[in-house]
């Protein structure tokens, strides 16, 4: 009878894990990117426009830049469909400079989308501002106090979003937490190793020192998640392995891959000239803050549950492990097929 209960509990946990494949697999870290509107004015009245919109489940969000009425398109927009975004280049002819003129983006209200606006005026300093639902309009070149908020802090928030809403990176961290258990010293070593590793490759990839093709990289990240699944099962059985004894080694090794994956956000957006290191540092700090929030929430949640001594069936206690293994296997198959087809 006990064996039947274990089979039933394990099977139910696996079914629940598989049921989460749909909503979780629909998420992608690169789909959390803001849109980018870059405006260059080499001479007053002539504006070169770059409009880059990330694809969300294969479709661009319905966002449209709105320029002043005295600006007219000089040529046909040239949209280019990429793997992660749609890029449209065009040229505007305006009766006067855009400096000090209003700019808006339609479609932001009621959404969580953001638009990074980078303005390069003729003979002036470059400014970067952000548009979002609460403030879909700005004045080009206006100080942040009278216009949209400055962009550099957005790189901090972008890092937080990228880790907290990126399921593949979080699932790897969750797998590590399930293996570490309540060994808090081991937890500190493991999270430190993972942080150090992905910080190195995040910087190297973003700055162009190290380049990794995206499809193989995503497949390898999925494989890193799947790798943890058998190790989680070994902890359930009271067994041991190198990964269980020294999880920081695995965290560091696979953290190098995850850092390159995190860099896709900054590669898509590009870093503002003159502020590259600041933006990169803020993004990395945001990633670490988001990661610490997740680790603390899981750690404290498990500790509180045990302190309260709330009863829980076996399948519920093992559900996080089933989710890690199920999604890891699903992403390995999905991304490997995408790699073969490309």
Structural features, described:
- The chain has 342 residues and is α+β, with helices and mostly antiparallel strands.
- Helices cover 54% and strands 17% of the residues.
- The chain has helices at residues 2-19, 21-25, 152-164, 167-180, 184-206, 214-236, 242-245, 247-262, 264-269, 276-308, 314-341; strands at 35-43, 46-54, 64-66, 71-73, 78-81, 85-94, 102-106, 114-120, 127-132, 137-139.
- The N and C termini lie far apart (50 Å).
Q: Give the H and E element order.
A: HHEEEEEEEEEEHHHHHHHHH
**Secondary-structure class:** alpha+beta
Tally of individual helices: 11
- Taken as a percent bin, the fraction of beta residues is 15-25%
Q: Which percent bin holds the helix content?
A: 40-55%
Largest sheet: 7 strands, mixed
Radius of gyration, taken over Cα atoms and rounded to an integer in Å:
23 Å
Silhouette: elongated
How many β-strand stretches? 10
Low-pLDDT segments: 1-22, 24-31, 144-149
